[in-house]
Amino acid sequence: MASNPNFIPGIYNYCDRWCERCSFTDKCMNYAMEKERFPKSHDNPDVDNEVFWEELAETLHDTLEMLREMMKERGIDIDEIEVTEEDEKKEEDLREFTKNHFLTKMADEYIKMGDEWLKRMEPAFEENGVYYDRSDMEGDKEKMVALRDALEVIRWYLFQISVKIQRALQGMQRHEGPDDEAFLYDSNGSAKVALLGIDRSLSAWQRMTGFFPKEEDNIIDMMILLGRLREKTEKVFPGARKFKRPGFDEG
Ligand code: SF4
Fold it and tell me: 22, 55, 127, 132: which one has the fewest Cβ atoms less than 10 Å from its Cβ?
């Protein structure tokens, strides 16, 4: 698959992993591999289903076997891999730096606010028909679909924004000089994915205010937090917006 010229190299490294909504599935090697590896669960993209987890467990077994073989070929003994105290300290410092960074704290605050709001509003979503099949919808279908779409967007990015920001911070911290340009590249790419998630979430929250006018104040609080996070992320990662994601930003 890697030599297939139809695939865009590395497109899956800086996407949001929302394959169901991606217009590049036919150009993505990762998508093709997943489809080949998990044919049954691909027909039913419910990640909670039993088949998915069974297939995943089978893959883990094969992967570990493959890893053992590869290490054997290279003469590596897993017990002999030396991690010095200095390495451990460096990693620990990096984790602390990321955890305590103000961007992480803001992104985690957004998760908390968003998650609480979504849980509190669950009955209202049901009342508005969000969980019906589109074909079964009664009443104002357009409204139901629009509400469901906004909800899906908010849910998809709620946790991802923080994860991508933390990855971007780690890359920034690991980047210590010209020899580490790959870290800077990765840092900007991850920050861009976080920023796109923020942009889309902001639009989705804006739509939410139209569905639940009484919730406007609460929604606006979250939008203000997201807006500030957006601005600060752009400042911390000045190269992020200019980052060209393979495929998506290359015409
Ligand atoms: S590029 Fe698209 S198809 Fe490939 S992993 Fe990302 S979202 Fe999925």
Answer: 127
Torsion 107-109-110-115 (CA) sign:
positive
Distance CA 52, CA 216 (A): 39
Establish whether residue 17 lines the binding site of ligand 1, counting it when its CB lies within 6 angstroms of any ligand atom.
Answer: yes
What is the mean pLDDT of the segment spanning 149-162?
96
The stretches of 48-134 forming alpha helices (DSSP H) are 50-73, 85-100, 102-127
53 band by pLDDT with thresholds 50, 70 and 90: low
Q: For all residues of the chain together, what is the average pLDDT? A: 86
| Residue-wise pLDDT tens digits, 7-41 | 999 999 999 999 999 999 999 999 998 888 777 65
- Distance in angstroms (rounded) separating the CA atoms of residues 94 and 31: 32
Looking at per-residue pLDDT, the higher value among 68 and 156 belongs to 156
What is the reported pLDDT for 138?
A: 58
Is 185 a pocket residue for ligand 1 (Cβ < 6 Å)? Answer: no
Helix axes 216-236, 160-174, angle to 10 degrees: 20
From residue 248, alpha-carbon distances to 8, 47, 74, 197 in Å are 10, 25, 37, 14
pLDDT score of 224: 95
> Which letter does DSSP use for residue 244 in this model?
-
**107 vs 191: CA distance, rounded Å:** 12
CB 155 within 8 A of CB 118: yes
Quick check: CB of 30 below 6 Å from ligand 1?
yes
Instruction: Compute the CA torsion angle 20, 9, 159, 210 (nearest 10 deg).
Output: -50
